[in-house]
């Protein structure tokens, strides 16, 4: 097997475990919730302000009870960041969908999206999986997955 075949095989394995329905614009999540014009202005301005600070990369975690509008806010922010070519990835959790109700595929999904959105990190993601294929196991330590699949490649941007 050539190194090219190994890398492509690794990319294929990652693609297979990625939860496509967790992406902000997936068909599984239609109709996409979105903030209506003029709503949640203060919160959106606060989030956009955080994202404009160049000295630090930001991970924003929205939390709250069901029905308060987390998905609408997250979709609206993701759509804006995608338009600015600044979206690393998204993961929308859901109680209804087995792979989206747990964290097992969270970092694999984010790593896949990061490598799609920023192709310069694809090699780092592939290398991490070649070195430790167990990173794609949903029962693997979240800390190990986060460091190898997401943070190390992210630091290269």
List keywords for this structure.
mainly alpha, 157 residues, single chain
Query: What order do the SSEs take from the amino end to the carboxyl end, as H and E?
Result: HHHHHH
Provide the low-confidence segments as ranges.
none
Number of strands: 0
What distance lies between the first and last C-alpha atoms, to the nearest angstrom?
30 Å
The helix content, as a percent range, equals: 40-55%
Average of pLDDT: 90
How large is the radius of gyration?
16 Å
Number of helices: 6
Largest β-sheet summary: none
Shape: globular
Q: How much of the residues is beta strand, in percent?
A: under 5%
Structure description:
With 157 residues, the protein is an all-alpha fold. The mean pLDDT is 90. The chain has helices at residues 3-17, 41-52, 70-83, 106-117, 122-131, 142-155. The chain is 49% helix and 0% strand. The radius of gyration is 16 Å and the shape is globular. 25% of the residues are buried. The protein is built from six helices and no strands. α4 (106-117) runs parallel beside α6.
């Amino acid at each position: 097997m050539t190194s090219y075949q190994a890398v492509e095989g690794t990319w294929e394995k990652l693609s297979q475990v990625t939860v496509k329905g967790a992406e902000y614009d997936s068909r599984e999540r239609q109709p996409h919730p979105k903030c209506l014009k003029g709503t949640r202005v203060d919160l959106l301005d606060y989030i956009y302000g955080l994202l404009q600070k160049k000295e630090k990369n930001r991970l924003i975690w929205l939390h709250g009870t069901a029905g308060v509008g987390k998905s609408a806010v997250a979709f609206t922010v993701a759509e804006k960041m995608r338009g600015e070519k600044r979206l690393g990835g998204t993961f929308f959790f859901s109680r209804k969908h087995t792979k989206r109700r747990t964290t097992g595929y969270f970092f694999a999904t984010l790593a896949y999206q990061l490598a799609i959105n920023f192709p310069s990190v694809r090699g780092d993601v592939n290398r991490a999986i070649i070195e430790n294929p167990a990173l794609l196991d949903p029962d693997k330590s979240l800390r190990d997955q986060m460091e190898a699949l997401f943070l190390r490649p992210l630091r290269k941007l």
